[in-house]
Design goal:
The complex is a heterodimer of chains A (276) and B (316).
Chain A: H1 2-33, H2 37-40, H3 55-63, H4 66-97, H5 103-112, H6 118-132, H7 138-162, H8 166-174, H9 179-190, H10 192-208, H11 211-216, H12 225-230, H13 240-260, H14 262-275
Chain B: H1 12-15, H2 28-55, H3 73-79, H4 82-113, H5 120-132, H6 135-145, H7 152-159, H8 176-200, H9 205-213, H10 218-247, H11 250-255, H12 267-276, H13 281-315
Helix pairs in contact in B: 2-13, 3-13, 4-8, 4-10, 5-8, 8-10, 9-10, 10-13, 12-13
Classes of the chains: A mainly alpha (276), B mainly alpha (316).
Chain lengths: 276, 316
Amino acid sequence: MKRSKIGITAVIVVLLVVAGLAVFPFYWMFVTATTSTSGLYSDSPQLFPNLGDLGNFADAFTDTPIMQWLGNSLVVAGGTMVLAVVLAVPTAYAMSRFGFRGKWVVGLSLFLTQMLPEAVLVVPLFSIFVALGLLNSLLGLILVNAAFVMPVIALVLKGAIDSVPIDIDEAARVDGASRGRVLTGMIVPIIAPSLAATSVIAFFHGWNEYVFALTFTSQDALHTTSVGLAGFIGELTTPTQQVMAVAIVYTLPAVVLYLLLQRFIVTGIAAGSVKG
Amino acid sequence: MTTPVGAPPQGGSARRRDPRRIHGLRGLPYLLIAPAAIYLIVFQGLPLIQEFRLALSNAKLFRPNEFDFVGFTNFVRIFQDDGFWQSVSITAIYVVCCVLGTVFVGLGVALLLNHNFAGRGVLRSLVIIPWAAPPVAIALIAIWMLDARYGIVNRALRTVDLAPDGGNWLNSTTFALPAILIVTIWQLFPFTSVVILAALQSVPAELHEAAMIDGANNRQRFAAVTWPTIRPTVGLVAILMTIWSIRRFELIWLMTQGGPVGSTNTLVIDLYRESFIIRDLGQGAAIGIVGLLVSLTITVFYFILSNRAARSEVTR
């Protein structure tokens, strides 16, 4: 009994260290954003946030085009989410509820898209986007981001629909509900947690995306936050505090939503990756 | 039962009765899948075909759609280029270290989180945060923390006299790759932890109790009870990490752009540089094809191995 008590204390101590390492860079972002310029470059670093310097956040909003970047990111992420989920739900339903010829091809293709690196397809997509006139448009970014995240979502949602008993479909059909009603009225509400989790995954896929946004948009007005933020690297005019303030504003929604929905996201990802 | 619409199902595969599936509507599943299928063909299939065409062409960035086919010239050129082989070996080092690092750290943290104690949920939430954060933000804070003079890492290391020469991490051919590796593993171990933790929690408690009654110690219980249950998950996480590290772009591009002197130049960095800085789309595409073939080979190997493992499990 005594030994296991020591054991569990050691476990907690090690986990505290791990959690500290996991969180420290975010803490340091915040400390940096709330340090005065002289404090940043003094010999003894300021180790705690100075709430008197919160004005750096306000400066970041007035001195950088962050509002425009966040707006563009919101459009791209929201569009990616809607498009990916709208395409994935019927696919997942068909994959779960129907046996049909060529089904394994669909399943395999969905899995194989996982192996196509964005950085590989960015070259041919560039040439296709030139031909289609999709360069320098947020719509182009939505179209390409959704294509990369939709297969994962379809696989996760298929797993979710698999776990809904088919009796529910059949009972509703006996009562005269159409197939569309069964899907939207019965199944979608039951898999709502998975739907929420996959929506968050799709949203932040678009929110975080960098390669395509960097390569396919050259106009400043179309920069997403990822591209705008990355533009600070090696640029010396913007104060480091403001850069970190922008980084925090950009990171916070992702972290908060993941934490709120982590139970669903983790089970969804685990189920999706186990099914592969 | 369902009312059949149109012709009744015919042919072997549709006739098999699976109570979990609906039968009788042959066209409907195709109709449901069609939008996604067409969409994926346009935005994944066509680019893939175009990738092969570009790899066999002399396309340049400023005229991406007017090119001549030049056979395997691009491949011959990259295979004769020492820089290409350097980036192949850097990719191999990067991938192997990422996979080992994320899987071992993830497994360790998952085993620790699998204990019962107050506050476990909070710790698990904190550990998950790096995975949720955008890579661009992570690259930014990493660059600042590793700053030669004012970065907190060097400030801390200097107090114990362990800072590298001049505090150079990302400007050093020795330390840039390890620094990027640490950041990558730091960002990805939360994912491996939570997935392995989910598998650990599916290990039946009775098995542990039975092993304990038989007098098995911790290590024996891990080998006999825990490991066989989580092995498929660990294998799957390992292959995911392999594919993800081969394709990893943002962190490396933002932290070093493949430098200094090519010391962090993985294949995807190399192909991006070749395509959009040197502006040779054909050459870039050829490098991309090589990268694609490598990850395809690894995945196929993985499935052969895991199938064989599953089969030997059954016969045992």
